[in-house]
Amino acid sequence: MSGPFLLSARALSLKPSSTVAVTSRALELQKAGVDVISMSVGEPDFDTPEHVNAAAIQAIKAGKTKYTGVSGIPELREAISAKFRRENGLDYAPDAVTVTSGGKQALFNAFFALLNPGDEVLIPAPYWVSYPEMVALTGAFPVAVPTHPASGFQLDPQALEARVTPMTRMIVLNSPGNPTGAVFTPEVLKAVAEVAQRHNLMIVTDEMYEHLVYDAQHVSIGTFAPEHTLTVNGASKAYAMTGWRIGYAGGPRDVIAAMNALQSQSTSNASSVSQYAALAAFQQHEKTTQFIGVALRAYRQRRDRIVEGLNALGLRTPTPEGAFYVMADTTPIHPNELEAARIILDDARVAVVPGTDFAAPGQVRLSYATSMENIEEVLRRLGDLLQQRGQEE
Ligand code: GLU
User: Fold this and answer.
1) What is the pLDDT of residue 392?
2) Which residues surround ligand 1 with Cβ inside 6 Å?
3) N or C of the chain: less Cβ packing under 10 Å?
4) Whole-model pTM?
5) Nearest 5°: CA angle at 93, between 51 and 55?
6) Going by DSSP bridges, is the β-strand pair 247-250/37-38 parallel, antiparallel, or unpaired?
């Protein structure tokens, strides 16, 4: 039964996140005893490193469980400022850094701090489902800039510039990218930075997967156009800290100040305990780097196996250079990716995210942040599914 109140136009226009929806559905099925393997969740299967957990426990024992400043504890902002310098060659002073409840809140605050209704925002497609939805919530318009499997989803700066209009305000980048795993080359990033400078656009670059690169090099676009760039990142993917909800951003001080004002009226601050945990990840960076190295070796083996296995089944899958996702062409299962994902869930008991909300028709996303045993079992189940469907035809 619906209640007496009408929902807002914003709520009615908003599409719930399909990555979160499929992941929740897989968890429900698993809870109900169905033997579903989830390849949907964009979440490391590693435990949070021990030195990070220990710092959080220590923080709780020391009573660091109260509000913090809106932009985060000063020690953490200093550690993030040092991290930006050490790992990215970016010069963001601690007061040009803000800490948020996950990368999503940093993006949300950034879009609301920078966009007006009617503005246009260029987003390379396939894109992560939440960018266009968040942009549209502000009243601005997301404008997709297509990239293609044949070029490994590399961005063409000329195709980007061709979509600039007098209403364009912003470019959103995500490299290494979710869902494609594409890593934009330094040349491409430099050219995109020049487009931003020529047309006075802001670049919001989501670098959440920066450490997860295999055959490529991650470069921060902020090194080419610092005054035009807001760099967003977080602890979730690199340090296996998804549940702690720690995101952060560095950029021009006035943008960071506006983001802080928004945060002061919404969540106040990221969890104090999580901030102390993240502080350990940054301060004890040798231990953290070691952890990342172990995870990266495992992801690389899994990537190689899943790409080879899916292609061998006739589901065309480019080899991604970064992150922990692959995009598989599921048209041999069904021409429509929503139907294909449904069949894969119902008949093969494998949860995947349909490409629809990523602007990737005919494809589904599989996350390989799961064990090699699961990957082998998924390939076996998909093989059975294809064989069955072949026999039915
Ligand atoms: N970014 C991850 C994904 O795409 C986590 C879920 C989400 O926030 O969308 O699966």
Assistant:
1) 79
2) 17, 19-20, 41-42, 128, 130, 178
3) N
4) 0.95
5) 15
6) unpaired
